[in-house]
Fold these 3 entries.
Entry 1:
Amino acid sequence: MNLMLQGKVAMVAASSRGLGFGVAKELAREGVKVSIASRDLDAAEKAATQLREETDARVLASRMDAKNPASIADWTSRTISEFGGVDLLVANAGGPPAGGFDNFSDESWQEAFEINLLSTVRMIRSVLPSMRQRGGGSILTITSITVKEPAEQLILSNVMRSGVTSLVKTLSIQLAPEGIRVNNIMPGRIDTDRIRSLDSTRAERTGMTPEECRADAIKTIPLGRYGDISEFGKAAAFLLSDAASYITGSSLALDGGSLKTV
């Protein structure tokens, strides 16, 4: 299938590793000019070098703090200065810590709000002028299958990422007349540092080993394994592309069949 992404410009947040890197790599393979960002500039530069070597794509690396509106604006300005505009945005940020309701103070809730919900608002706001000038665009947010089935020990993520999902649905209606599509992708257990960390946290809480936690989690996945970031990247690239031109306001689960909702 021709995704018709050649020559487009994408901004991919939190993309020095993990899910964001998987999306950036797949877009680069499709001929997209990719602007990646991370709180750690050295990590972003290293990831950019790897992407250039493996795909021959044009890649820009920037430092971006998702809690800082000026940092988001600077990343957008650098991207437009380097590539001339923005066609695609992947709004992404690291997940908040695991824990139950009694584990978190107001400060913890505020930080999760800033990183996981308000950062998405700010990223989308920053790219809309360029997308409008270019006659359209595609926006993809990365949340979690917990927005459909909340996980007991991920209360901060459950709440904030559900807000992102509502934002996506609302904006998909408002921006459709301008040719801007907005979708959401909900990863399940993709084999990333984040998931390995959650397995380790569960192991500490239950007395199991991380390996036992992983094996226990795999029992709940019909496909019988964790997903790979390349599989995630391919699905995200499709949703961003013109091959998905009649899809907006949707949330796609990439979970090996583990969601039990209809």
Note: The first strand starts at residue 9 and ends at 12.
Entry 2:
Amino acid sequence: MVTGFDVLTMGRIGVDIYPREIGVSLREVETFGKFLGGSATNVAVAAARHGRRAAVITRTGADPFGDFLHDALRGFGVDDRYVTAVPGLPTPVTFCEIFPPDDFPLYFYRFPKAPDLEIRPAELDLAAIRAARVFWVTVTGLSQEPSRGATLEALAARDRGALTVLDLDYRPMFWPSREEARAWVERALPLASVVVGNEDEWATAVAGTPPDVAARRTVDRGARLAIVKLGPRGVLGVTGSGVVEVPPVPVEVVNGLGAGDAFGGALCHALLAGWDLERTLRFCNAAGAIVAGQLSCSDAMPGTDEVERKLAQG
């Protein structure tokens, strides 16, 4: 039976181990918190917080951390039927350091290989991927086989007129070079109707052009929407009708990690609601700001009412 999820994501999952002590090196930290993590997974959590029926396609290790992630997903209301274990590979763990307002070093432990890069084309539920109202994938899934082939096959299964989001999500530590990442992103871009990333990620995706020009070219080549996250300068959105730029939402940053995933979940909600671009970008900015002001990522994802209250504060 084909299940029509509102939001179906595909990509990274893991356990985030965040220090309870802010402004302290991991060398000295003594207490940590354990949280569900991984960009695509956090986006599904964020979408669920907005009342959307969400699921994630990913893989964990066959270990207690993998069990924890299943428990966490169910607790957040995210369907975990497409989350399977890979015997012999440990569930990834990610540590971070927290030096507000803009220094949050990440240390990924995804060795010898992350299970979420073992997603295989033959295991995909293509009917569910086609039926999802929003399908969200990240560039990390293109970094290694068999995940690369699975990601491209999943994208190709979608109708170009559907809401298919490519999160540029470029992480240098997952790639041998920026040039190789660009080569595979170029394969994926024509298969997406919505593309979102920060300035550096756009520079990786489209060489030799400013991010706003790269976004315009992406729309000219068939995408419905291209979004450039400008950090402290706000966010820019490009459609066939023009360009909209909105300012940032003021926030006292505690941990900037996860803000982009909150933005992503809010974007899925706004796209499904059919909002105009300016309202969409303002809503997404506010969702990201809420998470940036808290320690955790998944646990901090706001619901719609909380985002609306943030917007009402000006």
Note: The chain has a mean pLDDT of 96.
Entry 3:
Amino acid sequence: MKEKLLGQFEELFGAGGDIREYFAPGRVNLIGEHTDYNGGHVFPCALTIGTYAVVRKRQDDKLRFYSVNFEKLGIVESQLNDLNPSKEAGWTNYPKGVMWAFEERGFKLSSGLDIMIYGNIPNGSGLSSSASLEVLTGVVLKDMFDFDVSMVDIALIGQYSENNFNGMNCGIMDQFASAMGKKDNAIFLDTSTLQYEYAPVVLKDAKIVITNSKVKHSLVDSAYNDRRNESEAALKELQEVIDIHTLGDLTEEQFEIHKNAIKDPVRLKRAKHAVYENQRTIKAVEALKADDIETFGKLMNDSHISLRDDYEVSCEEIDILVNLAWKTEGVIGSRITGGGFGGCTVSIVKNDAVDNFINVIGNAYEEKVGHKAEFYVVDIGDGAGALS
């Protein structure tokens, strides 16, 4: 892969100079969805698929971007003095947003860059291609300009750029998982404090299988921001009757005692999901540590029901995939993963049932919705960095 990308870069931008290569992974969240901006816990892991960059400094202020995935767009040119979001910039708004966020923090880019990008995360799959690209850009800038920033800083800068440059009000989970991933471990992250621990994912006789519905409904960005606003409004109502900073501060019992403070039934459902999902995530990690995969799977199933009914971020195609999984022998647990309204499910499937899982669900899904799903049996990989 490295040699092939280097060859492409030299064809595009010419040979010579200090050309460097980088990688940042996508992520899948095992449990803890829409809790990261509600002060709760999440449990994602980095994948071995992600986004690659080949980069070289320039002698001027020009930025030249090229994506192997969008080759018809050709080389997209910009300048360091034009770090502003625009429709015309397309996908380059993500790396430009990170550059802007670095400069906002006082890290000035002293020269332009030639950047070639290649990603093998399926588009619109909900496996965090945008966060991967943001973290990748952060790693490039840290290394190329010798900026004194930690990997946690890079995750926070990526989130800041997506919130304030690209207008997507996401939490920290995706960027944190891409930056801080560790092979064969998931990250148990408290998003209110950024305290985290690595938890080995030892599934013994089972695999993680991601199923891509191949649909992404267009309302995802606006609906995501709506969910965040509804949750924040519910929090304000609860804060009038109990001293909390986030919905993640509440146990299920405390929520049930004080929930009448929330006056709107929709906001009530959003808050219920945030509270219960956070507690599910804590219990799921405890179950994994105790080698109780069956309980972990049941909590995954409960998570999907809550995301479907209380947070209302599922969709017909995803529900079909999950319902099929629940009925298939050898499936320990299955749920929607990512922001929702399409994208992927994540399932834990016994080793000897994986082939049957892909075959049975693949055929039934195509029959019901009229197009194929894609399946990825995934490994958990390391976080972002330079490729030596």
Note: The chain is about 40% helix and 25% strand.
